[in-house]
Amino acid sequence: MFGLYLFAAVVGWAFVAFFVFFAGDTDADFDGGGLDLDAEVDLDVDIDVDGGTSLADTATDFLSFRSLVFFLAGFGLTGIVLDVLSAGSILTFAAALALGVFALYLNTRLVRFLKRSGVSSDLRTADIVGVPGRVVLPIGSGRKGRITLNVGGRRLYLVALPFRDDADFAVGDNVVVIELEEGTALVSPLDDIGA
Predict the structure, then answer these.
(1) Which of 61, 77, 103, 165 has the smallest set of CB atoms within 10 Å of its CB?
(2) Is the pLDDT score of 190 beyond 90?
(3) Looking at per-residue confidence, does 151 or 20 come out higher?
(4) Half-sphere exposure (CA, 13 Å, Cβ side) for 8?
(5) Residues 6+ apart with CB under 8 A from 25
(6) Which of 52, 70, 94, 88 is nearest to 14 (CA)?
(7) How many CB atoms within 10 Å of residue 53?
């Protein structure tokens, strides 16, 4: 059983780390023998079903890719720890299963809360352009980062790129949104506004 716990922990925690550090979005540049290919991957496989909290909504939330990853992470880590402590195979499996289900449930509740308190889709580009923000993940030429800003009393986190290719921004730098391009904020230093 230790092999099963180890496999679940490695797969689960690898994706959890990916979700935490990259929020499900990555950009990779590949050099294919002189060809410059850009690939963008979005691993958020959650499915939204319109309506109230029906049985279909609950099943969809529990069977989302992200929820299953959190189940594997909780199940695997608990199984490894209890197996190393020689807690007994039945107790180890039961506790690992219980904590895996708890992690799945906790993720589902958190996602529902974030969906309810998230930004509505009626937010327009004009509401964001010209708004100052702060860098929360470093931004560089060809490397997406994240910014946070306040719009209408709501805190937003946006994927961002520099407006000029030669600009780099570190965590904590103050920036301003110049334009939105396919959901990505193009930012410039806040100091440039006065120049």
Answers:
(1) 165
(2) no
(3) 151
(4) 23
(5) 40, 41, 42, 144, 159
(6) 70
(7) 9
Q: Residue 195 gets which letter from DSSP?
A: -
**Residue 48 · residue 118 · CB < 8 Å:** no
Angle (CA) 189-193-195 rounded to 5° is 105
**Which residue's entry shows tokens 């895996």?**
100
Q: Which residue has the tokens 């935490």?
A: 20
Beta strand segments in 12-131, E: 25-32, 35-42
How many residues does this entry show for the chain?
Answer: 195
Residue 139 DSSP code: B
Task: Give the pLDDT confidence of 135-186 residue by residue, as tens digits.
Answer: 998 888 778 888 888 887 788 888 888 888 778 888 888 998 888 887 788 8
- Look-up of token digits 């890719």: 65
Tokens describing residue 164: 């000029």
Mean of the per-residue pLDDT values of the chain: 75
Residue with tokens 């560089």: 140
Please tell me the pTM assigned to this model.
0.46
Closest to 61 in 3D by CA, of 113, 109, 9, 12: 109
Interatomic CA distance for residues 61 and 16, integer angstroms: 17
